[in-house]
Amino acid sequence: MIFGRTPVLPTPEEALKGRETPEFEVPSRHTVLGNALLGPYPEGLEVADFGLGCFWGAERKFWQTDGVWTTLVGYQGGFTQNPSYEEVCSGLTGHTEAVRVVFDPSKVTYAELLKLFWESHNPTQGFRQGNDVGTQYRSAIYTHNPTQEAAATASRDAYQQVLTHAGHGTITTTVLPADTRTFWPAEPYHQQYLDKNPDGYCGIGGTGVELSHPSETNWGRACPTGIAPAPETTN
């Protein structure tokens, strides 16, 4: 994959085995929001997990959203225990770069987070986002309960309709339960990377197609507003 081969997800047998314990400690606090990165979280908050390309820019999208209590980046949907960034980028762990979003549903709904997710990347590109190529850049939603699963699936179906109308292809986003797909936090330097490095690489770029009315039961109609250019560099 590193030398131009088509990215392919490994099987559990092919994947790197990883390690029983992590090789680093996750920072205790979010550098922007000031809240704890790891749980347990305050009562009443909910957790959502999204993969939408390079997690540096993706995480910033969510921490800038009112009602989000904390965010952290990590690796999800693969087979390797406690993977490192280098292992994930090798394509031999099966993980995608993911953002964990802890939010107050009285201030921002899961449907609104889904709207942000869909509009912040191109979900039709398979194992890539723009010029970022690899299985770790695939689009994914990992749900924490049946309500999230229903909302994620409904939003995907609604977004497909307007993407098709705007001339885009088929959504490749997977919607899978988080309880069988461990979220492994990424290394400290990845957490809130763009706060520590304001001029750092951000590969986030959507299609320019909006999902206009976020609702778990009625997604309204969306309208094309132009196509965002693909990023020119990778991380």
What is shown here, in short?
The chain has 235 residues and is α+β, with helices and mostly antiparallel strands.
Strand order of the largest sheet: 7-6-1-3-2-8
Helix content: 10-25%
The secondary-structure element order is: EHEHEHEEEHEEHEE
Span from first to last CA?
15 Å
Shape: globular
Alpha carbon gyration radius: 17 Å
Structural class: alpha+beta
- How many helices does DSSP assign? 5
For the largest beta-sheet, the strand count, sense and barrel status come to: 6 strands, mixed
Query: Unreliable segments (pLDDT under 50, ≥5 consecutive)?
Result: 220-235
Strand content: 15-25%
Tally of strands = 10
Report the average pLDDT across residues: 90
What does this structure look like?
It comes from Streptomyces lasiicapitis. It catalyses: L-methionyl-[protein] + [thioredoxin]-disulfide + H2O = L-methionyl-(S)-S-oxide-[protein] + [thioredoxin]-dithiol; [thioredoxin]-disulfide + L-methionine + H2O = L-methionine (S)-S-oxide + [thioredoxin]-dithiol. Keywords: Oxidoreductase. Has an important function as a repair enzyme for proteins that have been inactivated by oxidation. Catalyzes the reversible oxidation-reduction of methionine sulfoxide in proteins to methionine. Belongs to the MsrA Met sulfoxide reductase family. There is one protein chain. With 235 residues, the protein is an alpha+beta fold. The chain is built from 5 helices and 10 strands, in the order E-H-E-H-E-H-E-E-E-H-E-E-H-E-E. The strands form 3 sheets. It has a 6-stranded mixed beta sheet, with helices on one face. The longest helix has 20 residues. The chain is globular, with a radius of gyration of 17 Å. The two termini are 15 Å apart.
